C-alpha cells in the first residue's frame, strides 16, 4: 500500500495522559478521517498508558488504527498489534541510542 500522509510527533507523556495532551494530535492531523488507515509507531510500550490513550483517541476518528513498537514490556496496559521484542518485568530499563542528555544521537 502507498503511504499517502506521514506525521511525526515527539510525545513524551509520563503518568496518566490528560485528554488535552492527546487532543494536540487533532490540531496537527486535521486530514485524518474515517477512511484513514493509521499506524502509530513508538519505541516501547512500557506502562502503555500513553500509547493506549493515543490509539483510543485516534480510533474515535478512524476505525483502522494499529500500533507497532520495538519493545513491549510484560504487564503493559496496552499491547501493540506488532512488536519485535517482548521484555519481562525484570528486564532493565531500555535506553535507546536517540535518548541522551543533549537530545543528540549517541555515537
Compose a concise summary of this entry:
With 107 residues, the chain is an alpha/beta fold.
**Cα-to-Cα separation, first versus last residue:** 34 Å
The helix/strand series, from N terminus to C terminus, equals HEHEE
Helix-strand makeup class: alpha/beta
Biggest sheet, spatial arrangement of strands: 1-2-3
Residue runs with pLDDT of under 50 for 5 or more positions? none
Query: Roughly how many Å is the radius of gyration?
Result: 15 Å
Name the overall outline: globular
The pLDDT mean sits at 79
For the secondary structure, the number of strands is 3
For the report, how would you describe the main beta sheet? 3 strands, parallel
* Tally of separate helices: 2
Q: Roughly what percent helix?
A: 10-25%
Please report which band the strand proportion falls in: under 5%, 5-15%, 15-25%, 25-35%, 35-45% or over 45%. Answer: 15-25%
Amino acid at each position: 500500500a502507498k503511504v499517502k500522509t506521514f506525521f511525526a510527533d515527539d510525545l513524551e507523556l509520563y503518568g496518566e495522559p490528560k485528554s488535552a495532551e492527546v487532543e494536540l494530535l487533532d490540531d496537527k492531523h486535521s486530514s485524518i478521517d474515517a477512511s484513514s488507515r493509521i499506524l502509530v509507531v513508538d519505541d516501547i510500550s512500557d506502562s502503555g498508558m500513553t500509547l493506549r490513550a493515543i490509539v483510543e483517541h485516534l480510533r474515535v476518528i478512524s476505525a483502522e488504527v494499529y500500533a507497532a513498537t520495538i519493545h513491549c514490556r510484560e504487564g503493559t496496559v496496552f499491547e501493540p498489534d506488532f512488536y519485535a521484542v517482548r521484555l519481562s518485568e525484570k528486564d532493565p530499563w531500555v535506553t535507546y541510542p536517540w535518548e541522551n542528555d543533549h537530545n543528540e544521537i549517541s555515537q
